[in-house]
Structure formats: structure tokens, C-alpha cells
Amino acid sequence: MKYTLFGQGEGVCTEAPANSPYVTVDSSQVVTDVSVSAGRAGVRMGWPLRTAMAVTPNLIVFSHPERTTDTMHKVYRALWNVSPFLRTVDSNAFFLQVPGEDVPLAEVRQVLLEIHRVLHAEQRFRAGLAENPFLAEALVAWSRLERVPGALYYRVRQQQLIVSPGLARWLDTGEEIETRWLEQMPIPALWYIPEKQREQLLQLGVHRLRDLKGISDELLSVHFGKEAWLWRRAMEQVPGGKIQVNYPAIEQRCSWRAPIGEESGIEVVESLMESMAAQLCGELQRVSAGAMSIGVSWRTETGRGSYEHAARSPVYQPFSLIAGLEAGRLQMVGRRLELLDVYVSDLRPLQSVQAGFVLYEDAFYPLAQIERSRMEDVRVQLAHKFPKKLQIGIKPTFREARLAAIERGGSL
């Protein structure tokens, strides 16, 4: 099963100082992000800037960025190191799916610790761990209005973590995971319903999601149209679910242009490609990814050209990238280079491999891969021949071994 962690940042949409409250606003002067101290003072996202300034007159105001901040890029890299199932949302939120049999509390705690290291005092994340992506986002939205009944609340340094009531019940009793807890969600927290229609539902006496069960389809369609029938589908949740992975970017590219008024000979191509390959592969290695498709395009005084190569295994080393594009470099004709692009696409997460080597005639040679079943047969034979001598797992510390010896009544 895949468990979903949804995180939404506060104060992460700008690289602001860490010693004063601030907000970011869009072109219509509506608050899009709030720092920690501004939130504690009562400022909320979605407010007009005038209202926010009335609540906290000493606010520092920033424009909402057009691109993701460096802080969020560091957060995304920390998340990618835990699981490749990562989806970035807007400029301050993410979905991360962690597969496993048990609820990944330890993994999530480590994720939040990694995030804490790249944030300052005015930035933090509120994260919800739930059975599927919709429930994880609902958990965070609900928690901003009131305490979610039955949920577990944790604080990891300054970061906030909420575990869904369904997972909390499973951890406590071991019973089957169920998602009916969503039926108690308040209508104002249902972000997928327009604000105006949420207000109309409250006027009709509909305060919780479960109250929609008592309204007929005819009454819903009269007031809100037939699309309102889908609102009740939110109560039909099942564990698991999928997210559309969008990190790292589908394509990474490095570009070079000849300086205006200057000529660059075609002989600079080799050094340019080496520099671009080092930059691209450095970025791939930072996110533990490799490219299955690589390419180069160019323009000389004789015209344009391009070359693409499909790799058999993920490319993440500069020399592999240059070797894959060597055929394209040989196709370049002309004397003056005007434009050069090197790009990688179809990125895949790299799989860690534990390799073995044997020393033979002062050289290391890789061992042939052995099937797990054969290794298990060897382990069984050794354990039978040398009982209590072969141990698999973490070696105990001296203190643990000493305590074990005391319990056995012997000596270490």
C-alpha cells in the first residue's frame, strides 16, 4: 500500500528575512502566503491585503513569485531522496507517496527533519499523512479550521504533522483501515466546492459533509446544478490512490549562445559540451535521477541540426552523456557556431545496487550476480553447521551485548 503525505508550506513563497512577519500577495492584492509570526497574529491566506494590514500593521509585503524559490527546491530534493513518487503543487505544497506495509511514521519524521534544516524561523510546513492523496489534502485543510476528531498530532521541531483518524485507529487497534472519518469534515474546509456555494450550503443547514446525504438529487440540482451530485462522491474513498509525478522536471536543458558581434569557431563545441554535461549531470545526481533520452541541437552559418539518442540505461555521468552525443557532434558542419543546446529527458529514479568484488592478481573484478534463493540456501547450510554463529542484521552495541549476557546469567 502507498501512504500519502501532503504538505503545505507557510512563508516559503519568498526568500524573506527571518526576523519579521511578512506575506506574499498576487496581482489582485490577495494574500497567497503567510509567514509563521503573521499567521500567529491572525493573518490568513485568501484575505485582501487591506484586511491583513489592519490586523498586523508592521507586515512586510512581497509579490508572489513567478517561479519556485530556492528554499522549495531544497525541500523537493529532500523529499525525492525518500521516495520518487513526488508531485509538486503550486509553489508551496507537495504530495509524497511512501510505499510500505506499515504506516511510515519514522520515514515521515525524517522527512520533516530534513525539511526543518532548510527553513528559517518564519517558515514551516503543515503535513497530513493519510490513506490516499485526497484524504491527505483534506486532513490539512480541515486542521486549519478545527481539531480533527480521532487524528494524531505531532510536532517535529517547528513542523506540524497530522495522522488521519483511519490510520490512527489502525495503529491503535490493528483493525482494517476505513475512511468514513471524512464524513465529519466541515463544509467551509471543502476546497473543491466554490466559496459562494459553500456559503449557500451553510444557509441551507448543511454544516458537515455527511449532511449532503440527506439532500435529494433534485434539490441539489435546483440550487447548484447537476455537477453538485459529485460533491457526495468525496465520501467514497479507498486507500491507495495515485499521484501524477512531476518532479524532477521532465526535461533538463543547458543552452549557449554566441556573444553578439563576436564569432566562435566550431572547435569550441567539445569544451562547451563537456561543461554542459557536467552541469546537467550534477543536477541529475543531486536528485538521484538518470536520463533515458539525451539530445543536442545546434546552429551554424550553414543552418540548424539536431541529434537524439535513446540510452539503454539511465545516464547520469558526464562521460556517458558526452559519449552518447558523440555521433551528433560529428554531424555538425560549418566554421562558426551560433547556438548550442544539450538536453536530457525521460528522467528515471536511480536504483541503488550493492555490488561485490573479488581481488585477483592485484585487481578488483565485479562478482557475478547471485540469485537470492541461492544465497538463502547458503545461509541455511551455514546456520545449520554453525548454530548461533551466523547473524543477519544490525550488530548489537557493547551495552546491548552486556545486557543480553546479564539476562542469560553469564559473562560477556
Automatic annotation (TrEMBL):
Organism: Alicyclobacillus fastidiosus
Entry superkingdom: Bacteria
SUPFAM superfamilies assigned to the protein according to its UniProt record, in alphabetical order: DNA/RNA polymerases
Protein name (record): UmuC domain-containing protein
Family: Belongs to the DNA polymerase type-Y family.
Annotated UmuC domain residues: 23-137
